[in-house]
């Protein structure tokens, strides 16, 4: 499981090797603070779009900037370990920025995927991925699943 968690430099080398062997690399990203069935469904569908699924995980500092004080509930190492335990996720890497655009530019995935709350035209890194013929996809979410809603229910 730990071997699936890579830094960006190691992951870039792996991806170059995979692409040289004809593999299609899918990239998605998120905070994944409390992993729920909606996430699992989304990630599994993302994996089916290619041969290898790479998940960019927002660092703790990045999540705090995006979601506010009190988030994340789970530390980045724990979130990465949980994601890496899913059989259909091939690699996990942590990034510090608010968006994964810098990471996407470095990794050059064949397919960039985000959840249905994102329009294809608004997906960070999308314009870059399209410059070299890559695809940008927005997958619909499973209704009834939201980390924010789950946290609100727990706090009640």
Fourth-tier CATH superfamily name: HUPs
Listing every helix as H and every strand as E from the N terminus to the C terminus, the arrangement reads: HEHEHHEHEHEH
Which CATH class?
Answer: Alpha Beta
CATH topology label: Rossmann fold
**Major sheet, described briefly?**
5 strands, parallel
**Strand order, sheet with most strands:** 3-2-1-4-5
Proportion of beta-strand residues = 15-25%
CATH-defined architecture: 3-Layer(aba) Sandwich
Dominant shape? globular
| Domains (count) | 1
Helix tally? 7
In helices, the fraction of residues equals 40-55%
Distance between the termini: 34 Å
Global mean pLDDT? 92
How many beta-strand elements? 5
Low-pLDDT ranges: none
Layout of SSEs?
Layout (H helix, E strand, L loop, with lengths): L7 H13 L4 E6 L6 H11 L4 E7 L1 H8 L8 H9 L6 E5 L5 H7 L3 E5 L10 H6 L3 E5 L7 H9 L1
Could you explain the architecture of this structure?
- The model has no long low-confidence stretch (mean pLDDT 92).
- The radius of gyration is 15 Å and the shape is globular.
- The protein is built from 7 helices and 5 strands.
- It has helices spanning 8-20, 37-47, 60-67, 76-84, 101-107, 126-131, 147-155; strands at 25-30, 52-58, 91-95, 111-115, 135-139.
- The longest helix is centred in the N-terminal third of the chain and has 13 residues, at 8-20.
- A 5-stranded parallel beta sheet has the order 3-2-1-4-5.
- With 156 residues, it is an alpha/beta fold.
């Amino acid at each position: 499981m730990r071997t699936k968690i890579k830094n960006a430099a190691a992951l870039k080398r792996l991806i170059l090797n995979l692409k040289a062997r004809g593999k299609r690399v899918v990239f998605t990203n998120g905070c994944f603070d409390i992993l729920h069935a909606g996430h699992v469904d989304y990630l599994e569908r993302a994996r089916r779009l290619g041969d290898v699924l790479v998940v960019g995980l927002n660092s703790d500092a990045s999540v705090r900037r995006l979601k506010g004080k009190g988030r994340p509930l789970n530390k980045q190492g724990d979130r990465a370990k949980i994601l890496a335990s899913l059989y259909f996720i091939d690699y996990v890497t942590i990034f510090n920025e608010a968006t994964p655009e810098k990471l996407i530019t470095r990794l050059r995935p064949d397919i960039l995927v985000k959840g249905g709350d994102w329009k294809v035209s608004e997906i960070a890194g999308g314009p870059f991925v399209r410059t070299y013929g890559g695809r940008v996809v927005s997958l619909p979410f499973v209704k009834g699943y939201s980390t924010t809603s789950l946290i609100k229910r727990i706090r009640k």
